[in-house]
Amino acid sequence: RMEKVINCFCKRPDAVSRLVCFPWAGGGSIYYARWGQLFNSSVEVYSVKLPGRETRVHEPFAEDIQQIVDEVISMLLPELKEKPFVFFGHSFGALTCFATAEHLKKKHGLEPVHLFVSGASAPHSKARQASLKRSELSDEEFLKWMTAVGGTPSEILKNTEAMKLFLPVLRADMRVVEKYSYPAPESNVLTCPVTCFDGKEDIPHDLEAWKDLTSGEFTIQMLPGAHFYLKDPSNETIIIDNITKHLETAEMDYLN
């Protein structure tokens, strides 16, 4: 049943902790599921699989962020109660992983031992409200924007059939993002540490605003590259090392 929503390449039932990864807009679960092979045996990697793609291609897309949150939590709650976990999300995934963490904390008194967000302004930031409604762009404008953002192989961008399959998925995710509004919090909603990653050549994001959401430690790490900077193998290594370091600290605290 869990396989419907979670892709786990390397099952490690004896792992001390778990990393749960949330995909970017239009993304599948394979990229992060592959991370399972890059972490040591103490970490089990779960990659979230959203409706409307991969093995869920015949299901309707999520209508809003709450639908994604509810599904992930209903599927993972027993696992999340079992051992320490961290969340990682890039771009659209940064918002879905925060929304999931916030809901878990509010409704179940559970939170990640660390929240890693990448390539996105904080959910309540004014920078988000000022951004264009991408989901309403024409196909041609949409393709121009995707080319400018980078990260999508040019052979896919030039392949009309591939784009016919890919564009509806991306548009659906953009609609979810555009519909998601989060008021500026009056107090911290999380207590866990938050780390923000971003590409130095990406459009500027309001990373500082993420600090408003937690009473825990807050760090920003800028890496070379544009929006999909994390696909660069050297950046990927830095991110994985960083997550590993924080997980090891959390594991020590947990085991003590």
From TrEMBL:
Q: Enumerate the spans annotated as Thioesterase domain.
A: 18-245
The protein's superkingdom reads Eukaryota
Q: Which Pfam families match?
A: Thioesterase
**Listed Gene3D superfamilies:** alpha/beta hydrolase (3.40.50.1820)
Could you tell me the EC number(s) of this protein?
A: 3.1.2.14
Database matches in PANTHER family? S-ACYL FATTY ACID SYNTHASE THIOESTERASE, MEDIUM CHAIN, THIOESTERASE
The Swiss-Prot or TrEMBL record describes its family as follows:
Belongs to the thioesterase family.
Q: What is the protein's given name?
A: oleoyl-[acyl-carrier-protein] hydrolase
Q: List the source organism.
A: Polyodon spathula
Q: Which gene is this protein's source? A: Olah
